[in-house]
């Protein structure tokens, strides 16, 4: 009985040792192969990832959108600040505060993108320059339009502000749709999508305030 157990034990040890040798051999082979594959994978993917990061994955449409929307937003903020001072309706004042609160941070965000891309951030404009830009960007008010808004007050101001801001928002939505179609920079196309969503809702709100819906 004892001899039999010893025989079984020796046999088991032999099988275990043989299996261990096979496993080690397989691991050595896999390690060499796996190491080669991993090295190849890293050498294939790393340069691409690095190049993509350096390039910022943006194109001319992203640059144009950022530069033009900064100017567009600036004018909307100017209009909103006028409304905060001159509007007779609290609802109009609340809307103006909402517009300024949303677009000021977006101006800063887009300015940051342009700087990181080595592009110039547009300078502030006024008067005749606003008029020139109005022909290039949809929804922009001319210098004359802004002068009229500044001189208006009370209910007249409210109506004029809402009418102009509807047109202004419609232009911004048009610009944002172009960016969504042509841009490649993820954060920019996401911001464009946010502009479409927010300003489309505000257009409906303002038209309702004007009694148009």
TrEMBL record:
The UniProt record lists the keyword Nucleus: no
Region (Disordered): 31-60
PROSITE patterns cross-referenced by the UniProt entry: PROKAR_LIPOPROTEIN
Name of this protein: DUF305 domain-containing protein
Secretion signal, residue range per the UniProt entry: 1-25
Species in which this protein is naturally found: Streptomyces phaeochromogenes
Lineage: Bacteria, Bacillati, Actinomycetota, Actinomycetes, Kitasatosporales
UniProt-listed PANTHER family: SLL0788 PROTEIN (PTHR36933:SF1)
Keywords: Signal
Domain DUF305 residues, every copy: 62-210
């Amino acid at each position: 009985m004892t001899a039999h157990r010893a025989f079984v034990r020796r046999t088991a040890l032999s099988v275990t040792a043989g299996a261990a040798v096979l496993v080690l051999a397989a691991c050595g082979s896999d390690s060499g192969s796996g190491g080669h594959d991993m090295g190849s994978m890293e050498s294939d993917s790393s340069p691409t990832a690095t190049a993509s990061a350096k390039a910022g994955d943006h194109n001319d449409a992203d640059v144009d959108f950022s530069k033009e929307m900064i100017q567009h937003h600036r004018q909307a903020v100017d209009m909103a600040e006028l409304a905060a001072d001159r509007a007779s309706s609290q609802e109009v004042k609340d809307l103006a505060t909402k517009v300024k609160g949303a677009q000021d941070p977006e101006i800063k965000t887009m300015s940051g993108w342009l700087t990181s891309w080595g592009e110039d951030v547009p300078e502030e404009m006024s008067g005749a320059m606003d008029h020139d830009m109005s022909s290039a960007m949809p929804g922009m008010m001319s210098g004359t339009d802004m002068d009229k808004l500044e001189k208006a007050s009370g209910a007249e101001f409210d109506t004029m502000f809402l009418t102009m801001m509807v047109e202004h928002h419609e232009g911004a939505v048009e610009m944002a749709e172009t960016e969504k179609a042509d841009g490649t920079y993820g954060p920019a196309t996401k911001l464009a999508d946010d502009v479409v969503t927010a300003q489309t809702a505000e257009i409906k709100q303002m038209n309702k305030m004007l009694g148009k819906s």
